[in-house]
Design brief:
Layout (H helix, E strand, L loop, with lengths): L2 E5 L2 E3 L5 E8 L10 E6 L6 E6 L5 E3 L7 E6 L4 E6 L8 E7 L12 E5 L2
Parallel strand pairs: 2-10
Antiparallel strand pairs: 1-3, 3-8, 4-5, 4-9, 5-6, 7-8, 9-10
């Protein structure tokens, strides 16, 4: 059974940093072939893709997080990471990881909540 488990969220002051992790289980042998993304959903807003990484390691970011967020992966650990620096209140959301292709989404995990507030 495929499972996504996100962790690393928390309460942080504006300007602070967090590193999110996503562990993928149940599909270890082909994780390395997946393009993956970090998504977030703020209260009252639609889910949005904030960063992506292809199976070859190419990355892309939503405009508002460019220069602040860095996505990476460790295929040996079936893990995806999101380093978030200079956090802003508008980054407050529940963050999820999943495959990039909508039609190939895996079952969503619980996500990890990030709150940026002073």
């Amino acid at each position: 059974q495929v499972q996504l488990v996100e962790s690393g969220g928390g309460l942080v002051q504006p300007g602070g940093s967090l590193t999110l992790s996503c562990l993928v289980s149940g599909t270890e042998t082909i994780f390395k072939k997946y393009g993956m993304g970090w998504y977030r959903q703020a209260p009252g807003k639609q889910r949005e893709l904030v960063g992506s990484i292809t199976n070859n390691g190419l990355t892309a970011y939503e405009e508002s997080v460019k220069g602040r967020f860095t996505i990476s992966r460790d295929n040996a650990k079936n893990a995806l990471y999101l380093q978030m620096n200079n956090l802003k209140p508008e980054d407050t959301a529940v963050y999820h990881c999943n495959r990039l292709q909508r039609l190939m989404w895996l079952p969503w995990g619980q996500g990890t909540e990030v709150t940026v507030s002073s």
